[in-house]
Amino acid sequence: MLGDCRAGETVLGDGRTGETVLDDCRAGETVLGDGRTDVEGVQEAIHRLLWFTYRRAFPPIASEAGPTTDKGWGCMYRCVQMVAGNTLLRVLGRGPWMSPEDQKKNQGCESRLVRLFLDCVPPYQPCSPEGPFTSLPDLDSLTGMLSIHELATTARQRERRVDEWVGPNSAAHALRKLCSRFPRQCPRDIPRLVVHVAMDNTLVITEAILSSLDEHSKWRPLLLCIPLRLGLSEMNPIYVPALKASLKVPQSMGIIGGRPNHALYFVGHFRDHLLFLDPHLTQPCTDDETTFHCDSPGALPFAQLDPSLALCFCCLSEEELRSVGRALQSVILDSESKPLVHVVETPPPESSWLPPQEERTGEGSAVSSLDAFDFVEGAESEGTSHSDQLADDDEFVIIE
């Protein structure tokens, strides 16, 4: 994403906005996916990212009496929409990963992607993922596939209402389940994205590879989400260098997390501040493309970050996945902080899967809580990966 946006010696106050932060950037020290190094380039790249926010006056969710706005509870869903939408842009080489000239020539591509997330349409009717097809499904059949309606109803469990706030783990799992419904053949410019959620702060390479292979053993674009908990009620500062390093990994798609009662999508960092896109603007439900772009980011000190978050990476090949694994092992482990993620080739034996109890509950450990109820509906089938079997962490997430 935007990586490291360094500034001069000016000390920022917590009230500084992202736009002011960018004014302090030194040319040549900003890391961008499209190679731009100037302040204007940072702002332009941010504007070209997809931005999803609260909406109002959309069709009711789940029932005729269901909510018609996600204001106050849907911010984490909007954050995973931003991760998914911008990952799709990256897969297609669009957005910040495209030159301004090519961007003008390919505006229709972004319009087609945005339709996946629209809330202002009748309830989405899933396509059959099975083939063979006599023709490709049209775009209308996928409109709203990743809408707030689909995310909220997919994440709903037991007695939970659709309008309850969820943490990054549940939101990532809901996105994973929705993306598994992509038909085997998709319309033009709609990549068949797969989401893999690495649980227990452990990335198992072989499991992620198996998730990414289609029925013909061909690689599908992979969005890798790694939920973590970096402290108890507050962020443990020992992990900050590693978080900064994770944002510099070439495949980084940012971080979903935030602060208490406030989910945010982090796309880069500037000294001791994270740069973010904020979903907390309530807009009318519309397909107006201008409402899906933000002119400047916000800025949040690392010290105010809630410890419950998820790292996100886009892997376009097995080699890119392994490159992420190597980066998590080398760049992050060498960044003068405790490790964020354990990377292994194959799952450890069942008896050794969990770290010691004191590691899982101590303030100095990077863990995802495993003690809440299971996210996956129904009985598990043979061959289900650890990421599908492990429990949801929402009972322990501090952000609300």
Automatic annotation (TrEMBL):
Cellular component terms per the entry's GO annotation: cytoplasm
Residues covered by region (Disordered): 344-366, 378-400
Keyword Iron-sulfur recorded: no
Transport as UniProt keyword: yes
A molecular function GO annotation: protein-phosphatidylethanolamide deconjugating activity
EC number per UniProt: 3.4.22.-
Acidic residues: bias regions: 390-400
Catalytic activity: [protein]-C-terminal L-amino acid-glycyl-phosphatidylethanolamide + H2O = [protein]-C-terminal L-amino acid-glycine + a 1,2-diacyl-sn-glycero-3-phosphoethanolamine
InterPro entries: Papain-like_cys_pep_sf (IPR038765), Peptidase_C54 (IPR005078), Peptidase_C54_cat (IPR046792)
GO terms classed as biological process: aggrephagy; autophagosome assembly; mitophagy; piecemeal microautophagy of the nucleus; protein processing; protein transport
Broad class of the protein's primary localization: cytoplasm
Domain of life: Eukaryota
Subcellular location(s) per record: Cytoplasm
Keywords: Autophagy, Cytoplasm, Hydrolase, Protease, Protein transport, Thiol protease, Transport
Cross-referenced PANTHER family: CYSTEINE PROTEASE (PTHR22624:SF49), CYSTEINE PROTEASE ATG4 (PTHR22624)
Function summary: Cysteine protease that plays a key role in autophagy by mediating both proteolytic activation and delipidation of ATG8 family proteins.
Entry's family note: Belongs to the peptidase C54 family.
Protein name per UniProt: Cysteine protease
Organism name: Cyprideis torosa
